[in-house]
Amino acid sequence: MCTAIAKTLNDGRYYFGRNLDFNHPFGESFIIVPRNYEIRLTNFDNIKHHPTIYGVGLIMDNFPMLFDCVNENGLCFAGLNYPGNATFFDKKDGKNNIATFELALYLLSTFNKVKDVKAFLENANITNQMFSQDVAPATLHYIFKDEDDCIVVEQDKDGLHIHDNPYGVLTNNPSFSWHALNISNYMNISNKEGVNRILKDIDVPRFGKAMGALSLPGDSSPVSRFVKATFLLNNVDFFADDIKNINQCFHILNNVSTLIGESVMDDETREYTIYSSIYDLKNNKLYLKTYENHQLSCLDINKFNLDDTSLLTFAINRQENIDNI
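Above: the chain sequence. Below: its structure as tokens.
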């Protein structure tokens, strides 16, 4: 389970982030892929020079496996679990064949705009190529965001689909088109006080606040998280202040996070929110907190030599920091 959110404000500020939910951490870290790090690719020529890419993920055989990331020009990516639906195929002649593990790095090193990603993917085939004998393709669907546009990319048994995403939200199964249709079930939900529509001639009292949002889902299923995140992202206040907005984005993710013990799998493992990340795209900063540590960590890529040729990695602090008075 995972939830991604993407928001552009009227003043041009924009933010992107996600909860990563699983039953254990992966040993992930902050990763910076500098402009001159040579990206090795399976289906394309290696890329020696590219925009800086930064995010969260793993290094495997000196290759960045990024769970969520952005490039320095503001193109954003995240992969979210899509089991049972995600389908990958053998390479096909005449297609832009791209392996799951190189999707983020290739697209973010080659393009800066969602419209260009979209044009490339319209003739793409996401392949079933394995990164190694032990690393099979992850069953994911994908969200891409820039300042102007947001799309969801899903490859199912009937092929690859690109969906415009006006909601700025993605979770897990079912398909994005199903989630988009399901939103119509909640069109009467409001952030205003409840309105009496059931009895025209009788004064029905309100006995609490936020009654306009009655029936807003609160469980951790993908369907409910999609609805709740969409409602919050498109109704809460944002500000002319980046830190306040970062805070607001984390509050949204908190509202769709999963606690240890809330979701017990058939094998008795507990799925929970491993980390939450928010990217400030105007300032090229990544903020992150973990399940264990509520204090925000900030990766500011402007502090580093972005013309380097080697990967930069930084450990994620999972130890709770407490301000003792």
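The chain has five helices and 16 strands.
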